[in-house]
Amino acid sequence: MKHQKAIALVAHDNRKRDMIEWVSWNHAILAEHRLICTGTTGRLVEEALARNAAEALGTAPVPPIQKLKSGPLGGDQQLGALIAEGKIDMMIFLWDPMEPQPHDVDVKALLRIAVLYNLPMACTRSTADFLISSPLMKKAYAPALTDYSGYIKRKVDGD
Ligand SMILES: O=C(CO)COP(=O)(O)O
C-alpha cells in the first residue's frame, strides 16, 4: 500500500455516532487518503466532513468518498470483494456488540476476509486512534501475506 491509503469505514447503526465523531476529529488526516464506505455510513461521513469543511471555510478538504451499497443490502460483501482484490488498505469497522444484525453472516464474512488478508483493522474507537496515529500511515507498507499456494494446489476428490 502506498502513502495515500484506501480506508474502509463501516459502522452499525448504534456505532454511527462514534464513527461520525471519529471522522470529524481526524478530518485533516483522512483528507490525505481515500474513503470507501458502506452506504449509510458513507452518507453520514460525507455529511459530517462537508459540515466540518464549511465551518473551516474550505480549509479542510473533503477526501474522495466511494459509497457502496448499504451493509445489509450487499455493501459488506462488496467491501469483502474489494479486500480480496487488494483494493483496500485498512478498515475501521465499528460493529455492534449488543444487537444481532439481519446480515450477521455478511458481517462475519467481512471480518474473516479482512483477517485472511492481514488487513490493518480496527473494531473499536481506541484501536482506530492507534491506527490513524501510526507512523506507518505516512509510509508505504505491505502486510505480510500467508502463502496459500499449498492449499490452492491441494489434491481433492475428483482430481
Ligand atoms: O451494516 C453495516 C455493516 O455490517 C453498515 O451498513 P450501512 O453503513 O449501510 O449502515
From TrEMBL:
Residues 1-159 form the MGS-like domain. The active site is at D76. It holds the Pfam family MGS. InterPro entries: Methylgl_synth (IPR004363), Methylglyoxal_synth_AS (IPR018148), MGS-like_dom (IPR011607), MGS-like_dom_sf (IPR036914). Keywords: Lyase. CDD domains: MGS. Belongs to the methylglyoxal synthase family. PANTHER family: METHYLGLYOXAL SYNTHASE (PTHR30492). HAMAP family: Methylglyoxal_synth. This is Methylglyoxal synthase. It comes from Geothrix limicola.
